[in-house]
Design goal:
By secondary structure, the protein is mainly α. It contains 13 helices and no strands. The chain binds iron/sulfur cluster.
């Protein structure tokens, strides 16, 4: 408990130092951390991210294995009959909405961006259905920019680790930017995603076996998930 308040009131330099150690330890624990969606170009990643909303990455990968062979450009999606695209995406949840989102997004790419996924945040955000999380993940993973895409794991773990007290994804991104070394921003997101899936689970985090236990404000979170949280 004392650790929780110490961490939360720590000056920014102390937070940065603690985060540096967290990244170091997570790097050793999850050397294989990466984005789990398969893609070979920015358009494929953008489509995969639209399909991945509230869906498992492995299912998205199964579906895109066929879809990416069939639709090779933004024009292919833009010109497809919507019912055919829906049929090709039918195994994913909300496939009708997602088919429409993919198509509208691609129509805009064709009409306004010379058929290419734009490489900057403002233009990506201008695409229908693309928010900051998706735009930052595309920029970070398909264009090699150092961005922070706040997905569910990045959000939850940043809160648990006392790196933010915000609950809004955009505000969390702005809290993290000054703390995370620029060249490690994409890596940091992959590490939190893997740690969130393997160890710091949402309902029952595995605190006793966690490599960053000594740096976490909630080292007994496992216990706290069964008892009222007194923090
Ligand atoms: S100590 Fe527990 S709450 Fe903290 S990061 Fe590790 S698993 Fe998550």
């Amino acid at each position: 408990m004392a650790r929780t308040s110490t961490v939360k009131s720590a000056p920014p330099e102390d937070r940065k130092r603690r985060l540096g150690k967290i990244i170091e330890k997570l790097n050793r624990a999850h050397p294989d951390a990466k984005l789990d969606l398969n893609f070979s170009n920015p358009l494929e990643l953008l489509v995969a991210l639209i399909l991945a909303a509230q869906a498992r990455d492995d299912l998205v990968n199964q579906i895109t294995a066929d879809v990416f062979k069939k639709y090779r450009s933004a024009e292919d999606y833009a010109r497809a009959s919507l019912s055919k695209l829906e049929e090709d995406l039918r195994r994913i949840n909300f496939y009708r909405n997602k088919a429409r989102s993919v198509q509208n997004c691609c129509k805009e790419i064709v009409a306004r961006f010379q058929r290419k996924v734009p490489e900057n945040l403002d233009d990506l955000l201008a695409l229908p259905g693309v928010g900051r999380k998706t735009a930052n993940i595309v920029l970070g993973n398909a264009f090699g920019k150092q961005t922070i895409g706040v997905d569910t794991h990045v959000m939850r773990l940043s809160q648990r680790l006392g790196l933010t007290s915000n609950t809004d994804a955009d505000k969390i991104e702005f809290d993290l930017i000054p703390l995370v070394p620029e060249k490690l921003r994409v890596r940091f997101c992959h590490l939190l995603q893997y740690h969130g899936r393997r160890v710091c689970l949402a309902k029952k985090p595995r605190c006793p076996e966690c490599v960053i236990n000594s740096l976490c404000p909630y080292p007994d979170k496992t216990k706290a998930s069964h008892e009222p949280n007194k923090d």
